[in-house]
Amino acid sequence: MNIIETFKTAIQSLKGNKIRSLLTMLGIIIGISSVIVISMIGKGSQQSITGELVEMADKTITINVVSDTEILKKRDYITVEDIENIKKLDGVEAITPSMRDRVRIVAKKGDRSRFNMLQVTSEDFLKLVKTKMLFGRVFTQKEMILSKKVILIDDIFAMRNFGRIDIAGQEIELEMRNGTKQSYLIVGVFEHPMKEFMNLFGGREFYQPYIPYTTFQKNVNDSVISSITVSIEDINQKDNVTATIIDYLEKTHNKESIYELTMRTSPVDSFNNILKTLSLLLTAVAAISLLVGGIGVMNIMLVSVTERVREIGIRKALGAKKNDILMQFLIESVVLTLLGGIIGLILGIFISNIVGDIIKIKPLLDYVMMAVSIAVSGGLGILFGTYPAKKAADLNPIDALRHE
Fold first, then answer.
1. Most buried one in 68, 141, 197, 311, CB count within 10 A?
2. How far is the CA of 254 from the CAs of 70, 75, 235, 236, 257, in angstroms?
3. Statement to judge: residues 330 and 229 lie in one domain
């Protein structure tokens, strides 16, 4: 009996018990569809959240003033004049100090937000932060020079406190940690760059207000500038531009080995690690249903062997070999799991698109995961079908014929 005939016999046997075959596949279908949904939504979320951040990080460098061997003096740190001069260097697209402080934002209607991190930027805000302006404008050079009390706020804060984003010209108060308050004019509202990340992890919100770095030094915190963030015009020239900036700082401050480069990829790496770990854990949980489904397949195949003992005896009496019986039951098991895997794959893609529409994330097909899922389905059929198939093949034909 050749393999094709054995395959046909296995298929006919499954067709004879359609409902039981479908119920047997259910565990595999649920397991594979769960894995596909987690994979597609996870990959889509990762791309949605970190894709643009990676692009920005590739063009951005951070240079810090650090020393493990000596105490730094005020003259060793970066100055506003340094920032203006570095901005003029070839290959530099934009620059801002990396300065921040914790403040409480107080809207005019009196609501007090929890403490949020107040950050600084320059008139090149859109070149330094991957976002877009939804209303208003960024800071002007004149506002930078005069250290004006102007502020950019994100759309989440605008909607929570004003119910709309067209609020340029409104004023808010910043309450410092020492309790003092300062009034700032809103000149623009931008799209919160971490909005999708917050949505993915339960919607916990944090605001990202920005003020000019000159205003920050004059009115909020006059600490030294120990770090600058620089956007590079050409990614391919990053090393050259970095070397030029460090060379400028060393010569200007007559100090070496204290200006160090830090690539701005750590936030992206952190997000990627979180998402990958979360996807891995959820995939492992979903894989448990595959194991349960495999056990179900083995259980049903054992029942099938018991029900067909006499059939097996007749086939052996007519000349079927041990391997023919083994292959027939093994093929039945593999067909069950493979068909369940294919149905689960299609169902998983369908569910992923529905879930993606609900949470506003575009699912991405992971072809490797799809191939692995199908391969695992077939492997489960072999793993859990071998014992029942061997049990059927080992039946004594005379005892089988006597079975009622």
1. 197
2. 15, 10, 29, 29, 10
3. no
